[in-house]
Design brief:
The structure holds two protein chains of two kinds. By secondary structure, chain A is of the alpha+beta class. Chain A is 23% helix and 27% strand. A four-stranded antiparallel sheet of chain A has the order 2-3-1-6, with helices on one face. A two-stranded antiparallel sheet of chain A has the order 4-5. In chain A, 19% of the residues are buried. Chain B has four helices and six strands. Classes of the chains: A alpha+beta, B alpha+beta. Chain A: It holds the Pfam family RNase_P_Rpp14.
């Protein structure tokens, strides 16, 4: 029973369909930095500096000004979760792909997961172990 | 042939230093613009804009410059022109800035705009004359402009009345 609706004529509910394309404003990336030589590991600030340097090399000052955040960083495994504004995802990913050197040491970024929702990064079916 | 569309950007070089005029040459200007693109848009922007990028026309007396680029990257190029702050040639560097006047799809449209623009500029210069002899000078040169018959190029700009 509709509360308070007895005796009042209700208008027929109109069907409304909303389609949102690329509605999320941020994209999240789980990345891992590979440093094959066993040298000193960068800390969180140096890691962010590396990401911004990669953007500056490929996309200039405009790329370096892109709002990128390092949400989490683990120095032991060199993996991090990055957040970037959705319009800048292509610039960030291409910059990470083409980065080759960190302090004259060979390095590579591996992008493990990406999603417009942070919750989706909590589980990774690729690393699932079936026993 | 629409796939190879180009855009022509017309701009003028403005400088407080009169010696900057000798730096207005195609190599110095091309290098300055390319350098600014590399700074602002990085390797990707530089490669994107450098495809078929040239300085098509230069006029060191008026400081007019016509640049050509691909249609896909003309916005990149136009966004970078405010970042060109100095011109360098023969180990001399002078501060300047670029004013974008017109963006056209063909050289002819830019030329038509330039003729119209020069006309209005001349009239404005005449109005802003401070003393009488400058006024006489400009009036004399305006009245002596004429349309000459040339085979391949269009004639000089002409003025109908130089008295205003």
């Amino acid at each position: 029973a509709v509360p308070g609706g007895a005796g009042r004529a209700m208008a027929a509910a109109a069907f409304e369909r909303r389609v949102l394309r690329c509605a999320a404003e941020h994209h999240y990336l789980r990345v891992r930095l590979e440093l094959p030589d066993g040298g000193a590991r960068p800390n969180a600030a140096q890691f962010k500096q590396l990401v911004v340097t990669a953007l500056r090399e490929l996309h200039g000052e405009v790329g370096a000004a892109l709002p990128v955040d390092v949400l989490t960083y683990e120095e032991k495994t060199l993996s991090a979760i990055l957040r970037v504004i959705s319009s800048g995802l292509v610039k960030l990913w291409s910059a990470l792909t083409l980065l080759g050197f960190y302090q004259n040491r060979r390095c590579a970024f591996r992008v493990l997961q990406t999603s417009p929702f942070l919750l989706a990064l909590s589980g990774n079916s690729r690393e699932l172990v079936l026993d | 042939h629409a796939a190879l569309s180009r855009r022509y950007v017309l701009c003028e070089v403005v400088s407080e230093d009169p010696r900057c005029r000798q730096c207005i040459e195609d190599r110095a200007l091309g290098l300055a613009v390319r350098d600014a693109i590399a700074r602002v848009h990085g390797d990707y922007g530089l490669a994107c804009c450098s495809v078929s990028f040239t300085v098509k026309y230069l006029n060191a007396y008026t400081g007019t410059v016509l640049l050509r680029c691909r249609k896909d990257s003309y916005r990149l190029l136009c966004s970078v022109l405010p970042f060109v702050r100095s011109l360098e040639s023969r180990a001399q560097r002078y501060p300047c800035f670029l004013n974008t006047l017109h963006v056209g799809g063909t050289i002819r449209s830019c030329q038509k705009f330039l003729i119209q623009y020069n006309r209005t500029q001349l009239l404005r210069l005449l109005q802003n004359c401070t003393n009488e002899e400058e006024r006489q000078c400009i009036q004399k040169s305006l009245l002596s402009c004429s349309l000459t018959e040339e085979q391949s190029q269009s004639g000089d700009e002409e003025e109908d009345d130089g008295t205003e």
